[in-house]
Amino acid sequence: MNILVVDDNKCIRDVIGAMVLASDHQPVLVDGHVAALEKLRRQVIDVILMDIEMPEVDGLTLTRMVRKEFSQWIPIIFLSANDSARCLAEGIKAGGDDYLTKPVKEEILNAKILAMARIAKMKQQLDEANKKLEMLSCIDPLTNVLNRRGLEQELDAVWQKNIRQRGELSLLMLDIDFFKAYNDNYGHPRGDQCLQRVASVLAATLLKGAELLARYGGEEFVMLLPSTSLSQAKNRGRNIIAALNQAEIVHEYSDVAPRVTVSIGISNSTLGAKDPLALIEQADQALYQAKRLGRMQCVL
Ligand code: GH3
Ligand code: MG
Ligand code: MG
Ligand code: MG
Ligand code: MG
Known about the structure:
The protein is an alpha/beta fold. It has helices at residues 10-22, 33-42, 59-69, 85-93, 106-136, 148-164, 179-186, 188-204, 230-247, 276-292; strands spanning 2-6, 26-30, 47-51, 76-80, 98-101, 170-176, 212-217, 220-225, 262-268, 298-299.
């Protein structure tokens, strides 16, 4: 482990450094806040041993600075000649994690380093697990595309970016035609497989980059196409219908074709939507029209 030792007194730095080295850790010795922050920015530090009384910026202030600048938690153990309860309490309040009085015994110092490192490792594992969970919570497990929650998160960011760039953002709402009949006749498991196949056909039509596909609900998908005009979006919709025709997913119980088809509603940020929800709402209205007009088509 890399142990940052912050102390303005060179003798103390060297003594502490030797103790750290004796238990096979790498000491990184600095004399004050400037060098400390510099090291923290440039190298991985596992534990900080922090003096309190230092001339320019004291240990309490430096601790607050570290906590403010670095989002990742690095354990801070104060090493101070001051053995007052008040000083200890102030140190913990400032963001420190433990407090030892100088002179410190080598065994105690290294035991405290070990304890802190152990907690830091647990914290890191927890952060990673949380990150993974958060990612998973945005993915639809059946089709592996974004789910509605993931879409809503992304849509906000894409919407803001579109406003900044004064771009044209198109949104396609796609709904499988006569899917209830598919389920009723082929059974739910095959219905699930059908959803997977449709999702992968749709995903294959995405252009690389910022375009997104999400499963919005049961058999409804949303495609987000930044930098895409209405007429381009309509072409994309036609291409999707053609791609599904080519995929030939058999559906003998559909009233429009002997295979799985979709209806598509299209909206675009130039049509007056005030927010992302309005954009979805417009596409939904257009989808409703596409259904009414006979399905397997796209409507603006
Ligand atoms: P329309 O052409 O008007 O869209 O008719 P539809 O039958 O596709 O629409 P409807 O809303 O009546 O039926 C949708 C069906 O989708 C009903 C539901 O059982 C099915 N469904 C929703 N989610 C899933 C799923 O995760 N798996 C399976 N297998 N079926 C699903
Ligand atoms: Mg000092
Ligand atoms: Mg539907
Ligand atoms: Mg429906
Ligand atoms: Mg449907």
